[in-house]
Amino acid sequence: MRARNKLTALQIRHLESGKYNDGGGLWLQKRPDGGGQWFLRITVHGRRREMGLGGLQDVSLAEAREEADRWRSVVRANKDPIKERARIRREAEREDHTLASITDQAFRARKADLKGDGKAGRWLSPLNMHVLPKLGRVPIEMIDQQDIRNTLIPIWHDKVHTARKAMNRLDIVIRYAAAMGLDVDIQAVEKAKALLGRQRHVTRNIPAVHWRNVPTFYTSLSEPSVGNLALRLLILTAARTSEIRFCHESEIQDDVWVIPADRMKAGKEHRIPLPCQALELLDAAGTWQRNGFFFWNRRSVISDAAMSSIMKRREMEERPHGFRSSFRTWCAEATDTPREVAEIALAHSVGGKVEQAYRRTDYLDQRRDLMQSWADHVTGGA
């Protein structure tokens, strides 16, 4: 029988870099910086393998010997200890009931309901930013209203919408855990809200340029920069900034811009009839076009701030998203456009589920005339 326990703790502290045998297949590889790694040499099914047992800083000599004994017994049972350890870890992960683990499972269960399968990360971001750093490693069965209150109180009044989203997501995760059969308090979120109290928040609409002043602002965007062209298209189409940024040549079908469902906030395909001014603008944007995207800037599409920064530099309070309000107010005050047509032009849902099931039109022809009239107003043509 091979000799064992050749090393001592005192020897190990003074060993030079190199490999040292403690006996029975247990080895220590010492590094020049004083650190090291324990590993066990074993023969399994005729193959010699090396199994890491941890770093010298974390695993003592006595612990390394204990681990070596444990895995030698697995070898004697004619099993591969490396595969056996992986199996044990997988089983442990399946029993991982921390908030972080359950959040991941709940998110994967909801992916089909989220825009783009949740790849943008917006569903998880309130939890990743404000909850999981503090509670992620806590078993979900141990989380109560006090934990939630203490975690969210720093943002409860200052980041109202984010706090609400975090609460909503956390409630979904806890209810998912309850469905798994875990012993959680499904009322914990509601109790935490009671402890936090009413939020101090006054809703403030995004400032918008008055529709009468839109032509003047549009004319001021005369320099054919990529940001100006993108902002002009946003004004002409009443689209959202994200829809404009990722506008792709494959989405333009004759005079209609077809935005796929995975790029829309509501998760439904949206068609925008393009007025002649918008089609001319897309031709002009060809200078900036790369990889099929109309608004490309160096290595990617323009940033989310590219259009708003134009308005900020002019010290304007208004923001690009406000032009959707400018358009909608123009529809109400300067035209006799039916409400449902104006709302669908903004990709808003109109009516309940039953009404939507029976109304199988997006009023494309009516909206074609509407968008041309808006473009004529914006460009001074009417």
Question: What does this protein structure show overall?
Answer:
It is a single chain. With 382 residues, the protein is of the alpha+beta class. It has 18 helices and nine strands. Helices cover 46% and strands 11% of the residues. The strands form three sheets. A four-stranded antiparallel beta sheet has the order 1-2-3-4, covered by helices on one side. It has a three-stranded antiparallel beta sheet with strand order 5-6-7. Helix 4 crosses helix 8 (160-179), helix 7 crosses helix 9 (188-196) and helix 11 packs antiparallel against helix 13 (276-284).
Sheet with the most strands: spatial strand order? 1-2-3-4
Query: What count of helical segments does DSSP give?
Result: 18
Proportion in β-strands: 5-15%
Mean pLDDT level: 89
Summing up helix and strand content along with how strands pair, one would put the structural category as alpha+beta
